[in-house]
Amino acid sequence: MPIALQGEITIVRARIATVEPSEGGVVLRIDGRRYEFPDAWALPGLVDAHAHIVGLGIAQREAYLRGAQSKDECIERVGAMLSRRGDWIVARGWNHELWSPPQFPTAADLDAIFADVPVALTRVDGHALWVNSRALDIAGISETTSSPPGGAILRSDDGKPSGILLDTAMEFVERHIPPLTATDVEEAILAATDLCSRAGLTEIHDMDVDPTNLPIFTNLAEAGKLRCRVLSWVRGQHRQWHRAGILPTVGQLHRVVGIKLFADGALGSRGAALLDPYFDDPTTSGLLLLDRDDMISHIESALEDGFTSIAVHAIGDRAVRTVLDAFEEIRLRYPNSDDVRLRIEHSQVVHPNDLLRYVQVGAIASVQPIHCTSDATMATRRLGMRTQHAYRWRSFLECGVVLCAGSDFPVESHDPLLGIEAFCRRTPPHSQNPWHPEESISRRDALDAYTIAAHRAADTNYRRGRILPGMDADITIFDRNLETCHDSEITQARTFATVVGGTLYMHK
Ligand SMILES: [Zn+2]
Prior knowledge:
alpha/beta; Urease, subunit C, domain 1; TIM Barrel; Diaminopimelate Epimerase, Chain A, domain 1; eight-stranded parallel β-sheet; six-stranded mixed β-sheet; 24% strand; globular; binds zinc ion
């Protein structure tokens, strides 16, 4: 049965009461009031299953370096915005893979323009920090500072810190950057959820949430100000949720459902943990940030605290295998844990022997289709022949793995249409040719990944993800049929309106 429909949908007290298909457009009756959308099509509300809401809101305000074609362009953009936190200049989004040559920048590049103020610029994937000498001084990082476990201080030929910090080494500097104020965070959440709503999203799975931000989400939800439902997976790498005393919560617009852990870093900075060394740097196979036993003990504490979902970031095939090992042990120790959703965020490089293990341990693959098309060139450099094991969407579905989708915004655009297109066409920007087209998926499977499967990943599929009587009234109304339109039309679709729990938001 198709999931896009035209006809009359009656909504009573936040739920869908009746659905009467008919041609010509969509009519909504919400608690007695009638709204007409001629020629439009309704889809179950789209979900972004992996995103960073505060990050997107802040990116609207602070210099954002995504897409910058050179380090000079980054430095220019930073100079133009001068986005500050206290004395610090901060920004994010640079990607040296887009530059020629694709080399990490250095502190000296920044020192030439910013000699006296500390500068900290986060890489697009959040796994590397580019700082100037002033920032290195403030953080006390010198020639004699050794790299921390799970991180690296990169050095130039003379042995001095080069100005690039990877993964846990970033914390040396980050702890000196003044935090955002509660007002900054509130404004960021409102800006981000408004953008998402206009792009057709009705629900966001917010990952790696800072525990101090949770009350701000709750207050906004209770005041009816969130235009999308928000589900939070709280930061857990150092048991932050536990130390902050965070427990699961229930609510219509905001719920705290799980914790988020990191098994490794990212491919771009060679922090993703691979089973074999990197193709373009045989001296390293990446970093595992948590081993199996630590992962198990974190997950056990989260389950004891009553959380029903565990999301673990794993990009490299070694990290994915380690997470599967941990999940397998959790399922053995908790034989009645069927209602616990175990998710592997990104699931980018998966060894063939591990595909079926997702099904065996009940792990959900949470992927970001635009990562594949944006990173195809870089992934080829990093992985060589192993790219055939990367971004294996169709293989997941053929094995029966639940595949849900998100954008990882602000790492990538929050627009779900870009992700749906990437799922189906798998074609990098500026290229005519699909990349490993054997792993592309059908339109219907792509839409399911943004709807019903995303709800399975949050255990809400019994009440969300389809336009059927009894379901929550979460609906997105587009100007065309996204289930059947030509591939080339997907990203041209316009959102007319979204409905979240029966509340209508008009977008055009
Ligand atoms: Zn993320």
